[in-house]
Design brief:
There is one protein chain. A hairpin with a 2-residue loop joins strand 13 (about 180-185) and strand 14. The protein has one helix spanning about 70-75; strands at about 15-20, 35, 45-50, 55, 60-65, 80-85, 90-95, 100-105, 110-120, 130-140, 145, 155-160, 180-185, 185-190. The strands form 4 sheets. It has a 5-stranded mixed β-sheet with strand order 4-10-9-6-7, with no helix packed on it. It has 1 helix and 14 strands; from the N terminus they run E-E-E-E-E-H-E-E-E-E-E-E-E-E-E. It is rod-shaped. The chain is about 0% helix and about 40% strand. By secondary structure, the chain is an all-beta fold.
């Protein structure tokens, strides 16, 4: 018996049909009115697919809404992404039902990027909880050849930046007469330099 001519319906979780009548203080009752209540499901995100990247690269993130969410509503979702790149907080909204976001951190940034994403439908219904994601921006391996001159027949040592943890592949760029080398840990040794020259290694 509300006194402000309004009645709230709480905890409605599925479509419902209500039949409503109103009775005033004099005992007069209105005609019965039928009210159909449509309940839209929340667009819950269940996963974000992303892989670690190297410094200067681009991470492609793909949000996945639960499989039971209606396709007709899925096509119009907007995704609100937020993430931290060091001390910088960033946000971007992607519309049109596109669940993908490409993030390109600054070329000098390395470390972990943490963020969240939530989905919102055209009725304003949104994910009950923002889904958290993270990925690593890895340091690039730096090649540092010895700066000291060598004599004919001696070796040149190339060091790899120890901050760049990983497995490295060493190759000599195609060049006639380029010397080969051997790998040992973070060191690549070019064997028996025979003459001045420019040699490319990656």
């Amino acid at each position: 018996n509300p006194t402000d001519n309004k009645q709230s319906l709480t905890n409605v979780v599925s479509d419902q049909t209500y039949k409503v009548t109103a009775t005033d203080a004099k005992g007069c009752t209105s005609k019965e009115t039928t009210i159909n209540v449509k309940v839209n499901p929340l667009p819950e995100i269940t996963d974000v697919t992303v892989s670690d990247i190297c410094a200067g690269g681009t991470a492609s993130l793909l949000a996945q809404v639960e499989s039971t969410y209606p396709a007709a509503l899925r096509a119009n979702l907007q995704y609100v992404w937020e993430w931290d790149e060091g001390s910088s907080h960033k946000t971007q909204t992607v519309t049109g039902g596109n669940p993908q976001l490409d993030i390109t951190p600054s070329a000098t940034f390395t470390g972990i990027i943490n963020g969240t994403v939530k989905a919102i439908d055209t009725n304003g219904c949104e994910s009950s909880t923002a889904f958290a994601f993270s990925f690593n921006v890895k340091t690039l391996p730096e090649i540092a050849p010895s700066a000291d001159p060598v004599c004919v027949g001696e070796n040149i040592v190339i060091n790899i930046n120890p901050d760049a943890i990983g497995v490295y592949t060493y190759t000599v760029a195609p060049q006639s007469g380029a010397p080969t080398g051997t790998v040992s840990g973070d060191v690549y040794t070019v064997n028996s330099i025979g003459a001045d020259g420019t040699y490319k290694y990656s």
